[in-house]
Input
Amino acid sequence: MQSFSSLLSLAVLLASANAHGVILGAQGIQGSPASVGFKVQSALPRNCTSINPCQQDTTIIRDAEISANIVNECGRTELDGNIDIGENTENALAADAVTQVKAGSTVDVTIHQVNADGAGPYTCDVIAQGNNGVITFPNVQVDDNVPGANGFSQAKEEDFVIKVTMPADLNCTGSSAGNVCTVRCRNNALAGPFGGCFPVQQIDTEAVALRPSDVDTILSLEKVNAQVAQDIKDLPVALAANQADGTDDGIKNAAIVSKLLNISVVSKAAPLQTVAPADATTTAADAVATQDPSNDNSQGNQSGNGRNGRNRGNNNNNNNNNNNKRAARSFVA
Output
């Protein structure tokens, strides 16, 4: 978590984004647990419109910031910065706080409109693999939307419930459970967009146990190079922020914030798994015989783009969030 000095600086920087809507809860199949928007703090008051404290956990989700590798596809809050989707999903699973869905089922999403530009309409997307950055189902059906136009209305300090319908061909494969999707909802306010993300667990499908070879996420060479350039540019500032948060004052102030908001995480031991050996396969190199070993090109295709691996080199740790690198995977080329 950020230090108070960092939070104050960020609040000044983001003062133009003083608005907002917060996802307080999401209820899928009746009887299942309710989800809560990632990084929504239940201890913050909902009876005011001021930037501090009432807007501190509002999620800001801007495509420009995603493309610039500042945040991932679930954006950031003013209090915590970039939202680590994987971490927050696992925390929710451990706390038994992930609502359940089926293909075609409906989720009731409670949105708290803080002030004028936390209004509707809201659009919602589904990321089938949870946190790989690929918007699998954009703009799914939303009924009973929050009233408003261009994100504005006169409502404030008011809760609205929208109904989000899961796609008929829903296929959630994310998280350690192997059957969790991320749902992202946001409005179209110019100061935002505002909204948030929450996890849903699909119960009418078989949980997936992946092998590395099953992961088909890919980033174009152009985007890899752009990400590397952006990481190099951002690294000095990111290192400075990391060092500031690691000072005695930074650690002390973060502890004060955690105590004030009663922030806690349920911990559960992760399973220890071993992937079963795959059946032997015949490679192209094995299958093709050449007359002249000097002309053997069986290794030629392995010298391409380094498997796009360079994008994993700089793990930008802005705001003590460890997964900013997924940001550039949104809207995969």
The CA atoms of residues 132 and 326 lie 7 Å apart.
